[in-house]
Amino acid sequence: MKTLIANGKKWIHFDGKIYSITSQKKKGSGTEAETTDLVAPFSCKVTKLFAKPGQSLKKGDPVVTVESMKMEYSYESPKDGEVAKVLVQIGQILQAGDEFIQWK
Amino acid sequence: MAKLSKVLILNRGEIACRLIQACQELGLKTVALYSDQDKNARHTELADESIALEGTSALETYLNLSKIIPLAKKIGCDAVHPGYGFLSERAEAAEIFAKEKIKWIGPSANSIRMLGDKLEAKKLLDKYKIPTAPWAEVALNKKEELTKSAKAIGYPILVKAASGGGGKGMRLIQSEDDLLDSVAAVAREAKASFGDGTLLLEKFIDKPRHIEIQIFGDEKGNVTHFGDRECSMQRRHQKVIEEAPAPRLSEKTKQKMADAAVSLGKGIGYASAGTVEFLVDENENFYFLEVNSRLQVEHSVTESVWGIDLVKSQILVAEGKLLKEIFPDLEHKSVRGHAIQARIYAENPEMSYAPSPGLLSYVEFPYGVGVRVDTGIKTGSEIGTNFDAMIAKITASDSDRDSATQKLLWALRNTIVFGCITNINFLQDIISTKEFSESKVDVKFLERNFNKWKNEIPEGALKILEKTNSASTQIQQSNSSAFASPWDSIL
After folding, report:
1. Order of strands, edge to edge, in the sheet holding B79-81?
2. What angle do CA B404, B408, B412 make, to 5 degrees?
């Protein structure tokens, strides 16, 4: 069995399997908690942008398309609401946790 | 063709390492290329020489012919090996190198053009009487025509990049509602990955198995096959586990598939390694899927059960050797035992296989009888998002399928990657299923059974992690850079 802390995450190799928890989180299954915020879940590049400032989005409306590890991922609005600001632009490289838009 | 002396490796990661090893075993010098982030990658260390391709994306680096060709001439290499992905199925690349009198270790530009382009390949099939599912070419700008041909084929439909492969640039369309969006998305993916946006629509065969035939030819028109591989265990149309020989398939069907593949290869004078992929339905009807005119990721399982080295054989063919010289005992060669390969991806199976980049703070691979590890990573490697998420392949070989499965499980249980989330636990759970052990698996198996898979942390592991807290915090503080020495914290 081996354990290690790196980059704010604790890792363990336990009974042949690998688990990790973030330092803040007591319990978890190795992944960040799901959120209804529109954020990049991993580092990626913005390839398409649908949302505009002042636009009223319906739940399910396309917001942004990103590319990572050669695959495309599309993100939809998780709720009805008005866009205050678009925080990304096409071609921009995002880090995990970067927000796509700001709600009004 | 004379003996080669210096090979430029047109790839990165595990396959670059694999190619370098084969070249060096044959006494050939190797030159590696690297992007900005790959400067310290394992393939650059293994090669005799390595050269920077400035930039970060594939287009700027490993796909950038205008940088690579002058380099190849400058360093005086007499051959290039493209591996898989990147330039491997770009006919114009093979052609340009041929013009420069630099040997392309792989099929000819002509073969790549005919087969690599799914559209052209399909046209060849009638000639060689190879069964195929209904299909149509996509005209992006003619929406009515597109809708019409989709209707004629009948939903569900697959849209895929004509020059694609490995599951990249491919999507399933369930109904007309998704047609235009999906086609546009695949066209963009195809352009980004392969530099070519040509697409085709194809009838989707429900719950098929993916079984493929390894073919191999010399430059004098002799073509043979090295049996079949079962590659049905897929997520997002990408293979996860592959094995040879294909289980639960009659010898009669295997022979028919192999004969079809060889006749296609012979028909076009295919040289070097290639793979003819088929979809096989429950009644063992098989339909042509595509030809990969290159070395395949899963070539390792074929090598294990046939006792051959496909990469070294490719080099020998490029030097002008004949099949009978490379494999003098070809007629007596047959499959021995069973081999299964698992692909380790830096991805999160709990979150729709989302990419999971990161700095690998600790990496350990298994070694032992019957276990083969192909990888380009090590402790300290950084997994970025510019390239494919596959970081290693583990192949287990044994006398029979059950033993090989147990061996693979053992190997995966002794594989450690800390620093980014991988599918290692997921792979263990897959091969532990009843369906896998009975090989009752089709290409939709993972989608049906593993979409809600969770990596639940056991209480015991959690307790230990909580206990190690303070000691580890010190290590974290003592090294403000992301990379901590693992040895300090290993219990």
Report:
1. B49-52, B29-34, B6-9, B79-81, B103-104
2. 175
A44/B361 Cβ within 8 A? no
Q: Please, what are the domains in chain B?
A: 6-105 (3.40.50.20), 134-203 (3.30.1490.20), 209-449 (3.30.470.20)
By Cβ distance, the residue of A4, A18, A69 closest to B486 is A4
Same-domain pairing of A29 and A50: no
Minimum-distance CB partner of B419 among A2, A6, A12? A6
> Mind telling me how many Å the CA of A90 is from chain B's nearest CA?
14
Counting the structural domains of chain A, the total is 2
Q: Is A15 part of a structural domain of the chain? A: yes
Domain assignment of residue A9, yes or no: yes
- For B376-424, what is each residue's pLDDT tens digit? 999 999 999 899 999 999 999 999 999 999 999 999 999 999 999 999 9
Question: Does residue B282 carry a pLDDT above 50?
Answer: yes
Q: Is B414 on the interface with A (CB under 8 A)?
A: yes
Domain containing residue A95 = 44-103
Q: Respond yes or no on whether ipTM tops 0.90.
A: no
Residue with tokens 């650059």: B44
Q: Is B229 a catalytic residue?
A: no
Q: Which amino acid is at B206?
A: D
Distance separating alpha carbons of residues B13 and A70, to the nearest angstrom: 15
Interface of A with B in 5-44 (CB under 8 A): 5-8, 10-21, 26-31, 41-44
Helix (H, G, I), strand (E, B) or coil at B120: helix
Could you say which of B42, B113, B294, B401 is catalytic?
Answer: B294
Q: Which of the four pLDDT bands, split at 50, 70 and 90, describes residue B167?
A: low
Distance from CA of B128 to the nearest CA of A (A): 34
